[in-house]
User: Fold this.
Amino acid sequence: MKNWGFKIPDSRTLDLDKEDLKLYNKIVEKVPSARRCIMCGMCSATCSAANHTNFNFRLVHHKFRMGMFESLASELDKCMLCGKCRMLCPRGVNTRAVIYNMRIILDNMYYKNI
Amino acid sequence: MENKKTVLVIGAGPAGISAAKSLANDNISVTVLEKEDTFGGNINNWAKLFPNFKDAGEVKSSLIQNFVNNQNIKIVYNKKVTELKKHNQKWIANTSDGEVFESDAAILSTGFKVFDAQYKEELGYGIYPNVITSVEFEKMYKNGKILTVQGSVPKKIAFLNCVGSRDEKVGNHYCSRICCIAAVKQAIEFKELYPQSEAFIFYMDIRMAGQFYEELYRKSQEKHGVVYIRGRISETSSTIDKKVQIKAEDTLAATPLRMTVDMLVLMIGVEASKSTTILSKQNNIDGPYGFAKSKDIHTADNYSNENGLFLAGSCKRPLTLTETIADGKSAAISVVEYLKQTK
Ligand code: SF4
Ligand code: SF4
Ligand code: SF4
Assistant:
């Protein structure tokens, strides 16, 4: 086993030891239903914004959960908060509230100093 | 008075116990041969059962009612059957200590064994002390604590599904069916013991195909905050302080992932027990992966292709405890049908 060569390329790698998963808890406090997401992709399949852009709410939600915050702020700007996704979600996730609260946190992280 | 019919039941796990009780109830004389010095089989490895967290000991107690002190049931312990053969319409079982048992019909209820995680060397079981199996987790939980080898409460624990199942590399293409729900159960038990700690489950698919399983999965997310990561762990290594470093892909984000956990629990799969394989082969009723093959999975699942030899429980395939107990009864009904025909 010692020769297996356990090496992980540093860039591009999601490092769950470093990333702050605790930020997601702030979303969960406000929107407990977020935790129930099973990443089925119904929301992103029906998404109004996805008709015109490459916006993917499922992926943005997932990346936020795993602490991959890069470029999420500008991604979220593509959402119109129309709420169509919420009408379909089989786990009753309050998707709009998740988006809204992610925006608040990310805006504070990325835009406050501009 | 007409001669009492006799049936040999091989294995005193849940399937064998349940079959023996039903047969005894029909006034058939049953001899149960058990290779261990006690009954219960794999149920002895569980602390609490999914999906309702019922105490496994309690379930066992109610299962063995009318089993141990039944005048129609003779239980013989430490009897490992090495040969089972039909001879002149009788079933003859030879045991490793040279004893011979004879009967009108026989039930194979030789059950399963768990996958030996050391075959998946890249996961570090047997090399890194904080990599444990789901069976060991269960044992620890029975004693009330989940602790690392250093004796501390894990701040982060990860469960890895499908170890030894759905894996061509170990020759098992099938799904073991019980490990997904067992992982959900154990993650909840862990979070209830240590709410401040974090629990992660690495999975390929979450298979919740039983009553209340999906609800439990949902509860583990909503109430306990168990985090599910879609991706199979490719390899592990150890840090200097004996933590376990994990390498996987977060396939939902198409991103390589690494993390360090205090403990890794391997959800080991279900395989045919040695006796199952040996005794099925002797009677040409062996199926894929060394399990015993039933005559027809839909309509004659307790029959084998060998007249008078019946199958009960997880010697056929991975089953839940609920299914196993029901299957034992079902096998008994088939035996009664058969004995009536043979007169
Ligand atoms: S539809 Fe609901 S459960 Fe499915 S990915 Fe979207 S938020 Fe998650
Ligand atoms: S609320 Fe946003 S994510 Fe949901 S459907 Fe509308 S645009 Fe898409
Ligand atoms: S039940 Fe789940 S963990 Fe077990 S083999 Fe099947 S998919 Fe894998």
Observations:
- The longest helix of chain A spans residues 95-110.
- Chain A has a mean pLDDT of 89.
- Residues 19-112 of chain A form a domain with the Fumarate Reductase Iron-sulfur Protein; Chain B, domain 2 fold (CATH 1.10.1060.10).
